[in-house]
User: What shape does this take?
Amino acid sequence: MEGAEAASLLAESGLGRLAQFKTYRRRWFLLAAVCLLNCSNAMLWLTFAPVADKTAAYFHISLEMVNWLSVVYLLISIPFGLVATWVLDTVGLRCAVILSAWLNMTGGIIRMFSVLKFLSLGSQSYWYLFIGQCLCALAQPLIIFSPTKLAALWFPDHQRATANMIASMSNPLGILIANVVSPALVPEGKHIPLMLGVYAVPAVTACALATVGIHEKVPPTPPSASATNSTSQPFLTGLKMLLRNKPYIILAVCFGGGIGMFTCFSALLEQILCEKGYSNEFAGLNGALFTVCGLLGAFLLGLYVDRTRKFIESTKICFCLSALASIVFAVTSRFRHQAVTLAITSSLFGFFGFAIYPIAMELAVECSYPVGEGTSTGLIFVASQIEGVILMILLQALTVRVSEDPSSTCALDQDGALDWTTPVLVLAGLCSAMACFYVIFFHTDYKRLHAETKSGDLVKAEDTATADVPEA
Assistant: This one.
């Protein structure tokens, strides 16, 4: 019934009469601009995390204050996420991308004020960093929500999943770059100004590309039947439709929880491994394998889904394999001298887990059509941030203080090290439970694809009827 309603919307808006669709080569420029912007924002987010101790010493602040430079992204994105969905689906993709590019660039430049002597606030220079991070955090939801909108408006149906995958995976690529580049640029605290300058360059470049190169809100001729209908539903109407859509709610809870788990895994990996004697370098290697293999998995699955349209089957299989990898990691990480197994497990966890991300975003649009892409993907992102905060608090609360172990590589505080056995087992259990829940209960029609198919059939029928009419 809902598929028929979607098809009727296409017909009512005149899309059913569109016999010709067109793609434009400049869609690849738009994709490149969004990718650079997404990558730059992720790099600005985690600039200081890999060199937290040197940052604290350089600015004469505590490690907790350094951590706030990353945590502020999480806190701001929850309330501003809803605003970002409204901007994308009401104001349009062009304004959203340009606004996010300027916020991102301004934040990156303001951070540099903290190391300029003529603008120095002395011991209060930290607040330049904090204000800059806040502006970059405001840009994040606009940037992260843009890929599905860009794919829907500018790319034909057989390229949508691939375009979404490329734009979405530029964010974890930026995280990977930050984790590699920050320690390389800052062997000593005195090199902090150089690091801030280097990270400002991609932000300025992305802003210039977006401002000068993006001229249109939508392409002159749509690439598919659903493209012109992409912003048809008012924001509040679309929000109400999503909250009454059971398949979408299941997807938002399960996939949002999955993103939250991946956030926790990335943030806590070093602390989990050091207690069993694994070095920080090995933890960094695991994090890199986790991200690189995830990018590869997302690329391969994106190509596969674009050809087969098997969104549901792909996400269910990958979710289950991710759950199995999390169980193996949880068990193996509790033993010493299992470096090879842990590296392989982290790689598989990333390969199958990251692969779900762009496909699930496309699936969110398919099961919620004709709601706007910004709203359908934005609500999942907000849910993932909320679930991530809850998981982070829960996992840290489940840790147990243990006496000092000679083989531990953790930087011990006065209360001793933390045992992460219970938290990692709980994380694996939650991942498995969500995978089972998703496999059993998630079922939906591909509403957007069905609407486009029916629209195409209508066009063929009209063309046939016109051809059969005899000339006077």
